[in-house]
Amino acid sequence: MNKVYDTPATALDGLLFDGMTIMSGGFGLSGNPESLIPEIRESGVRDLTVVSNNAGADGFGLWMLLESRQIAKMVSSYVGDNKLFEQQYLSGELQLELTPQGTLAERIRAGGAGIPAFYTKTGAGTVVAKDKPVEVFDGEEYIRETWLRADLAIVKAWRADPSGNLMFRKTARNFNPVMATAGKVTVAEVEEIVAPGDLDADCIHTPGIYVDRIVRSTINEKRIEKLTTRAREHE
């Protein structure tokens, strides 16, 4: 089975539809599927539910789908400095399911592992626990959280082989590996596609069994969200 596609557009062909749920990897601006997101925008698909740690930054990442009003709901842990995100949420235009970051990661992992629900102490006794079942374990309250799954997961990796085995580099190994397991279909854009056998089996972060399509990324800007520098100290 050939998993390698020529372009980001063809890698998404036949997968997009209105009202679908998409998981999009990335942490801040690191590990964003930079080449696939513009193709989703170009498709015109609407009423999307998007699961992602954040919604990009001004002019970059998922911000593009917010700007085009294609996202109806975000499931996120961080709103950050995205003014467009803030405006759409406060105006009631955008639904938001705000989830603690560790809980978000575990909900995605649970979705990939086939675990419908689990208990966590994170958020117990706060607004996060509203309308959620609560149980007591060892004298402490824990809230029940449910899995997250998606119609499509889009991830960004460093290297892949034709079988779809993936390696991520540094901070890009954030939500990408767990999201790859939780999508009905997973599309990975990668910086480099190597020959079969060129990846050290001990260094593979996501096995190819979870990946349906791979494509060479066409955008690798790797922007820095907030650049802070200081003068070099004199020796």
Automatic annotation (TrEMBL):
**Where does the source fall among the domains of life?**
Bacteria
> Know the name of this protein?
3-oxoacid CoA-transferase subunit A
GO MF annotations in UniProt: CoA-transferase activity
Keywords (A to Z) from UniProt: Transferase
Q: Which Gene3D superfamilies match?
A: Glutaconate Coenzyme A-transferase (3.40.1080.10)
What SUPFAM superfamilies would the database entry show? NagB/RpiA/CoA transferase-like (SSF100950)
